[in-house]
Design a protein that fits this description.
By secondary structure, this protein is mainly alpha-helical. The chain has 3 domains: 195 residues, no CATH class; 64 residues, no CATH class; 76 residues, no CATH class. It contains 25 helices and 4 strands. Strands 2-1-3-4 form a 4-stranded antiparallel beta sheet. Helix 2 packs antiparallel against helix 3, helix 5 runs antiparallel to helix 6 and helix 7 packs antiparallel against helix 8. The longest helix is centred in the N-terminal third of the chain and has 19 residues. The two termini are 49 Å apart.
Length: 477
């Protein structure tokens, strides 16, 4: 990692008038026997600082200042550091990251005391955490010393004072020791889920994930297994299920395998569906679950896969798929409705769903669809429209308790997460959340997918929308 990787700081601030001679005198007084060459070097530093005060965007001066300081010895660097207390903010902000960068090269164990003395920062500060990561990359043993020392002051409010970069570096050098220390954080009731997620992001092979899984099992917290399993599935689903099948507790094994299958459906739905169906003792029940978890944007793939299944009456499952997609994909219904045998009531119901889906997009498009139906079918659909779409006044208090209960569970997670809800005018509702995703966009998409599936099951007419991103609610219920 280069020295420039820790450079940063604000070059703005109140300018104090400090002359070239005053700066030189400061350095000379710090080291009376200073040689002529180094005296010239210090004088050049002072002049560059003055130039940068006058023109903070002077790239040549920035590069020259960095070049000079990166050549200083430890003694010379410490001499320069002594002058920091008497400098103005602009000069301090220029020198602090440069001195820090050179100290990392010359005396890593002096870096944190230097920052503490001249620029105290909270443990959560991103710059301080980055510096710790750089130190750990240079000396992993020292990195673990830092991490263990931070444990002393850590509590449930501060959390683990380490960013993803720092955790990943420690995991690379000694995963077992890192897990040992994380257990100590967990014993202080500190949430370590985001740190475990950081570890899993740096794993590349199935063997590495298997070893990490074994370490996680020692924590005796099933909730911490979910995110790493999701990522392991992208590498080797067979290894994941082989490992899960070794779990002795029947309920725990069943729950984790079910979660893994549902996650796999997002990663590779067709392969996951084939595996699920092959392993299922009750294929009809399994087909129902498979279709419920198949991603909406892969509906054509789901239809083609379903059509290939032998030895099962697939018509009822095609109807299920049409029903589940009736809200989000009216065009899909239009395309495939004639492919399955339906009685008159079923046809009327689906035609009404197509009409409603098109109407959300365009009233004109919905009316055009009605004109394609026979007169008797139009009358049946219109009767259903009148029945379903007559405004009703229903108290809307009942959904709050359920959604708030779900949100309280969701709130405890720290990593990228989102919570989605759907509430219609009849008081029907659904919700769903997703946590520990790789980024906010992925969390939003997954939360909406889960909410939509629940919405279709509960026959909620309104669409799902994001209720919370992270811990921030976007609107009131």
């Amino acid at each position: 990692m280069s020295k420039t990787s820790v450079l940063g700081g604000d070059n703005s601030g109140e300018l104090a008038s400090i002359s070239y001679m005053e700066g030189s005198d400061k350095l000379a007084s710090c080291k009376p026997d200073i040689s002529k060459n180094i005296a010239n070097t210090y004088a050049e530093i002072e002049q560059l600082l003055l130039d940068l005060e006058e023109n903070p965007k002077n790239k040549t001066a920035h590069i020259k200042l960095y070049s000079i300081i990166s050549e200083l010895s430890l003694t010379e660097l410490e001499t320069l550091s002594i002058t920091l207390d008497s400098r103005n903010k602009v000069q301090r902000d220029l020198l602090l990251p440069l001195i820090t960068s050179q100290l990392i090269e010359l005396a890593p164990r002096k870096v944190l005391p230097f920052i503490e003395q001249y620029k105290p920062l909270p443990d959560s500060d991103p710059y301080l955490q980055h510096v710790k990561a750089v130190l750990a990359a240079k000396d992993s043993e020292f990195g673990f010393e830092i991490f263990e020392e931070d444990l002393i002051a850590a509590d449930s409010d501060t959390g683990v004072p380490a960013n993803r970069e720092f955790i990943s570096i420690l995991a690379k050098h000694n995963l077992e020791l890192l897990m040992h220390l994380l257990v100590q954080y967990k014993n202080k009731e500190i949430d370590i889920s985001s740190e475990l997620l950081s570890i899993s992001y740096r794993l590349e092979t199935s063997d590495e994930f298997s070893g990490f899984y074994d370490e996680l099992r020692k924590l005796n917290d099933i909730g911490l297994l979910a995110s790493p399993l999701m990522q392991w599935l992208e590498i080797s689903p067979d290894d994941v299920f082989a490992k899960l099948n070794l779990i002795e507790d029947v309920d725990e094994r069943k729950m984790l395998i079910e979660d893994a299958y549902n996650t796999w459906m997002y990663v590779d739905p067709e392969t996951a569906a084939n595996k699920r169906l092959a392993d299922a003792s009750n294929k009809k029940s399994e087909l129902t679950d498979i279709l419920r978890w198949w991603p909406d944007d892969e509906s054509e793939q789901a239809w083609a896969w379903l059509s290939q299944q032998d030895g099962i009456d697939i018509n009822s499952f095609k109807i299920q798929l049409l029903d589940e997609l009736s809200y989000s994909s009216p065009d899909f219904l239009l395309k495939h409705l004639a492919d399955v045998p339906l009685d008159n009531d079923e046809k009327t119901s689906f035609n009404h769903k197509i009409y409603s889906g098109l109407k959300r997009r365009s009233s004109e498009e919905a009316q055009q669809f009605l004109t394609t139906l026979s007169l008797s079918s139009q009358a049946d659909v219109q009767a259903l429209i009148d029945e379903k779409e007559t405004p009703k006044t229903t108290p809307r208090e009942s959904y709050r308790d359920s959604i708030n209960k779900g949100f309280n569970q969701y709130f405890h997670y720290k990593e990228a997460k989102a919570f989605a809800v759907a509430i219609d005018d009849d008081g029907a509702f659904s919700w769903g959340y997703s946590v520990n995703r790789k980024d906010q966009q992925s969390a939003n998409k997954a939360a909406l997918e889960i909410c939509q599936k629940n919405r279709r099951k509960s026959k909620v007419t309104d669409d799902c929308k994001i209720y919370a991103k992270g811990d921030s609610k976007l609107f009131n219920l």
